[in-house]
UniProtKB/TrEMBL annotation:
It holds the Pfam family DAO. This is N-methyl-L-tryptophan oxidase. Signal peptide: none annotated. SUPFAM superfamilies: FAD-linked reductases, C-terminal domain, FAD/NAD(P)-binding domain. Keywords: FAD, Flavoprotein, Oxidoreductase. The keyword NADP does not apply. It comes from Sulfobacillus harzensis. It comes from the Bacteria. GO terms for molecular function: flavin adenine dinucleotide binding; N-methyl-L-amino-acid oxidase activity; sarcosine oxidase activity.
Amino acid sequence: MRKHYDLAVVGLGIMGSSTLYAAARRGLSVIGLEQSPELPHASGSSHGQTRVIRQAYFEHPDYVPLIQRAYRAWHELEQESGTRVLFQTGGLMMGSPSSAAVSGAIEAAERHHLPYEVWDSATVSARFPAFHLPESEVAVYEEAAGYLLAEGAWSSFLSVARARGAVVQLGSRVTEWDTSADRIRLNANGSVIEADRLVITAGPWIRHLWPSLPVWVERQTPFWLDDAYVAALGDYPIYLHEDPEGQHVYGFPYRAGEGLKIARHHGGVRCTTETVSREVTAKDEEALRAGLGFFPAAKAASVAQSSVCLYTNTPDEHFVVGQLPGSHGRIVVGAGFSGHGFKFASIMGDLLVQQAFTDMPLQELALFSPERLHL
């Protein structure tokens, strides 16, 4: 195995695997270093069968051009890998007219001329009878929304990257690097690897490598529900409901062999990768069911399976993507995806590669600049 590469990628979750894929497609010599002995794994933020994708982005309208590019890039991955990962089911953002989920989705759609419809509670119930909204709530319907097969996408990035010559080194934990020479020297389990540029996509382990980054890890517990009623909801859209306290619950259509995946978005316990409890408890289930007044069938359904995953949150819940301070532009970080980054992975990997070989910050990454955090 060679010891010098154009690019090294540390951390091969969905963002790192996408970066590996993008670099290999650009013809770069690239190595990916992953501390886990296997991929995919269930210890971080990239597992769990499905992820939401949507365009009317209530978090901030500036995400919309990126997600539109991401849709195209997901289709390119499907064509190259021969594996379907994107399913467009339509999507509902539900809550009061003034809720962030509703008003933010409308703002993003209006600013970027996206098609959408606003439904009152009676229309929602007529179209999708399992949802029961109070008369004071509405829904924004977006036809382009849907879901991604999480581990299918992750595996596709890795398989295409390897086929294009990328090297994947598992069980390799990077403990330090040296940028004093004209190359970056990485120490991974005692082995030295050299690269011209470095991308760090370490997920919830990012503070092991960048201790001053102001992010925190949050434990999340998605559930898969199953009974005869919810098993008939395979043609439902993806959905997110915001309650009067601002708590979000999101979910997916029923998938045979898996169940109906549903979870809270935020509201989890603060932890670290070392202290997180991997056991799903009755308290976790109670917290979810407390937020299912809008979806009585799910509230009554049995749990078929559950899991623990981790969010890595920034103070403003926008990503951190940019040059590591003091690295002279040779080290780029993608971190703090705050529970809503997966859908952008198809384009984020290529942006990370571009930024690694560009001295000036990329304009399309301005919202995610590390400088906003006053580091």
